[in-house]
Amino acid sequence: MDVPLPLAGETGPLPQRRLSVPPFDAPPTPEEFDRAVAQCAAQTGEGPLWAGALTSMASGRAALLGCREPVWCTFLCDEEGRTPTGTDVLAALIVMEGMGCAAFGLEGEDPLVLAEQYERIAPYATVPLVWPASLPRPELELAPGSALADPDVIPCASGTEARFLTPDVDVGETLRCGPDLVEEILESEDTRGALKIAVLEEDDLWALADAQYVVRDALCIVSDVPELLERSLRYYQGRAFWDGTEDLEDDFLSRLSRRYGLILL
After folding, report:
1. Does position 191 have pLDDT exceeding 90, yes or no?
2. What residue spans in the chain does CATH classification 3.20.20.330 cover?
3. In the chain, N or C: fewer CB atoms in 10 Å?
4. Is the per-residue pLDDT at 193 higher than 90?
């Protein structure tokens, strides 16, 4: 097993085993995602694990939700900074570090391409970065976490795109999960930089899961039902935020932040 090499930050013990993570070409159904999480959970044991050659956000999230051990996540990356399924690797970093990955890295054939992408994503990194062991390492100018010193830069992500919030972001009108949800999301995109979708009953949960493939902006999920909010965060393959408009327990929201990377404004 060609374990990635530490590049920036203290990684701790190296992974001893590589996870077999189901790939996804598109956002999975809730049932498919639950099966992937269970498949990852069945491989847990002792010591850090490596989820490598990831191509989608859903695969990385399944690994992190399924495993108790620290997980290193590395994503395939092309010259455009995207995985084979079109996910921006900066978005992948934002989601994976929000969910507590132990280290993050990129994989590809050209070390110069990877170097350029590492320099792009490093300012938003709060976890150690790792480099493919099989490739020579070019000179890099990394500034891990430097962009996060600005309180007006709050990283967020859809299932494919990196987005950035400010503390006073205006999310506009709340969308309801009706039969026209996809059309309403498309009409709202790029008007404010953020969406707000209400999940108030069971059917809303499935509607959001089905429609998430069109979400490109930062997403605020709102619900006054704790169970529905948590399940929405489980199946939404990005990193959502909470704007505080509903009265839920602080301890509950903090747990969602740790487990799913929920951003609390």
Report:
1. no
2. 5-148
3. N
4. no
- From the candidate CATH numbers 3.30.450.20, 3.40.50.970, 2.170.270.10, 3.20.20.330, the one assigned to the domain spanning 5-148: 3.20.20.330
What CATH code is assigned to 150-264? 3.20.20.20
pLDDT value, residue 168: 86
At residue 169 the predicted structure's pLDDT band, cuts being 50, 70 and 90, is: confident
Domain with CATH 3.20.20.20 in the chain: 150-264
Task: Quote the pTM value.
Answer: 0.96
| Mean pLDDT of the chain, nearest integer | 94
